[in-house]
Write a structure and sequence with these properties.
Largest sheet: 5 strands, parallel
Radius of gyration: 13 Å
CATH class: Alpha Beta
Order of helices and strands: EHHEEHEHEH
Strand content: 15-25%
Distance between the termini: 21 Å
Number of strands: 5
Number of domains: 1
CATH architecture: 3-Layer(aba) Sandwich
Low-confidence stretches: none
Strand order of the largest sheet: 3-2-1-4-5
CATH topology: Rossmann fold
Number of helices: 5
Helix content: 40-55%
Length: about 120
Amino acid sequence: MRWIVDGMNVIGSRPDGWWRDRDRAMLGLVDLLERWAAADGEDVTVVFERPPRPPIRSTVITVAHAPKPRANSADDEIVRLVRADPAPGAIRVVTSDHTLTTLVHAAGASVEGSGSFRARIEGD
């Protein structure tokens, strides 16, 4: 299974003050994803609407962002990634966004909700 994670959607699944420092929240999510991916051998790409500042580098997961930051640009990038993949049925997109869910299902990928995924990677 290949995972494509709607980064801010997962971050926003818990009202823990993430909005006060989005870049720190992005770094925290990448850290969680790295630990989970390394432990379980998962192939993970996280997509943000804009590049984190400072940039986040990982040797465990792919950290991506939309080409131009704007509302829903991460969703557009996720749809592009799914449609460009030769095996979209092997992809699970993590989001709770209804429109994104509809689009990636139409492209052949499956979806897991952000809340249940966050519990999975946090070991809850």
